[in-house]
């Protein structure tokens, strides 16, 4: 299991440590190794339980007390703080979002605005003016005739209505 962990193969490492525990459930180092492999998978609560079993079997092991269990508890505290912060941010985001107003699209104001926009578009389309940017960089607004468009120097870069 320890070799698999050093190769970053966490699932097989957990499986190997579990097999070692099934073979000898009183092996404190197998429980310690299982806890480390579980930490590698991000299973903090399971790792803490494995370290606690290891300490129950061999309570005088300073490595499990000082390194493994304390590290797993710090990770758990950070995870809980991050979850609380994320929940608070989600609540704050929900509180700051304003509800979308319910519009009546058949109201007289909306119909009047749509009519005004249509009249303005109609007036612009009747004028048929063209903005021409020539090769020399000159910008000119020209009104088109019905049958053909005029250009100042036979090269059009951008044509917009």
From TrEMBL:
Entry superkingdom: Eukaryota
Gene3D superfamilies, alphabetized: Tetratricopeptide repeat domain (1.25.40.10)
Keywords linked to the UniProt accession: TPR repeat
Keyword Membrane applies: no
Start-end of each TPR repeat: 28-61
Protein name: TTC33 protein
Organism field: Crypturellus undulatus
Source species taxonomy: Eukaryota, Metazoa, Chordata, Craniata, Vertebrata
């Amino acid at each position: 299991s320890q070799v698999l962990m050093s190769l970053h193969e966490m699932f097989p490492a957990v499986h190997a440590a579990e097999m070692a525990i099934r073979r000898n459930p009183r092996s404190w180092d197998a429980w310690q190794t299982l806890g480390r492999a579980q930490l590698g998978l991000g299973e903090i609560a399971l790792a803490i339980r494995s370290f606690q079993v290891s300490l129950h079997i061999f309570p005088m092991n300073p490595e499990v007390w000082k390194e493994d269990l304390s590290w797993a508890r710090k990770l758990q505290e950070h995870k809980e703080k991050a979850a609380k912060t994320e929940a608070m941010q989600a609540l704050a985001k929900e509180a700051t979002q304003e509800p979308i107003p319910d519009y009546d699209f058949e109201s007289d104001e909306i119909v009047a605005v749509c009519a005004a926009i249509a009249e303005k578009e109609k007036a612009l389309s009747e004028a048929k003016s063209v903005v021409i940017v020539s090769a020399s960089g000159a910008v000119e607004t020209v009104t088109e005739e019905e049958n053909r468009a005029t250009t100042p120097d036979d090269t059009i870069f951008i044509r917009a209505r």
